[in-house]
Design a protein that fits this description.
21% of the residues lie in helices and 30% in strands. The protein is an alpha+beta fold and 228 residues long. Strand 9 and strand 10 form a beta hairpin.
């Protein structure tokens, strides 16, 4: 289990969340729900970032296959023939499609490219509220909501309201939030959503006070990200 990078108690979130309310509600349009981590799909939903290490495989072209390639601090990789490719923010499948498009025609007729994550370094998540050890944690690969809460030593059994676990996320520059029922996820009756880098997870509970508690209480109990 990765130790927290730093402790981030609930009150440090109040400023940002209160500012969002003070400046008025964001657009009420729904955005797509978070991707569900399923068999064979988890790595496809992972967003690559600087310092991540990946394997690039070009079918039957050994000279273009690179293992343990590290994304640089600017978010780029460099490959034989095609040079620099922007990788940061893409899923492995999106990056594979971009590499194939660059190779097609000039170098190969129908390139078959796959990209896999060897080592994930760049992603972090904040877990706060009624958990045992609030903090900022590094995600070593695709991480679900249950796994992220487990990084914080789990929910605080004395205070936590597992029916209301909120994930705050910035989508296209807009602050979004979705509420999940951790009990339903644990029982297999609800999907366990994939957490994105820089998400903020807040487990509701009787120890959550003030403005943040008002915000959590006002959010609808829907597993859909909405502006607030």
């Amino acid at each position: 289990m990765t130790p927290p990078k730093q402790t981030l108690p609930v009150f440090m979130l109040l400023g940002a969340l209160a500012l969002a309310i003070a400046t008025g509600p964001a657009s009420a349009r729904d955005v797509a729900p978070p991707p569900v981590l399923g068999v064979g799909s988890s790595m496809e939903e992972y967003r690559l970032g600087p310092q991540d290490k990946i394997d690039v495989n070009v079918y039957q072209v050994k000279d273009l296959t690179v293992q343990g390639l590290q994304i640089d601090s600017a978010g780029n990789i460099f490959l034989p023939l095609i040079g620099g490719v922007a990788a940061s923010g893409l899923t492995p499948s999106q990056l594979a499609n971009e590499i194939a498009a660059r190779l097609k025609g000039q170098y190969l007729q129908e390139p078959q490219v796959s990209v896999s994550v060897r080592e994930a370094i760049s992603q972090k998540v904040t877990v706060d509220g009624a958990v045992v050890q609030p903090g900022v944690y590094a995600m070593s690969g695709p991480t679900t909501l249950l796994q992220a809460v487990a990084m914080a030593k789990g929910a605080d059994n004395k205070y936590a309201n597992l029916k209301r676990v909120t994930v705050f996320r910035t989508v296209d520059g807009q602050r979004q939030a979705a509420v999940f029922d951790l009990r339903e996820i644990r029982a297999g009756r609800a999907a366990d959503p994939v957490i994105h880098s820089n998400d903020v997870i807040v487990v509701d509970g009787s120890n959550v006070k003030g403005v943040l508690r008002e915000i959590l209480g006002a959010l609808p109990a829907l597993s859909i990200f909405r502006g607030f």
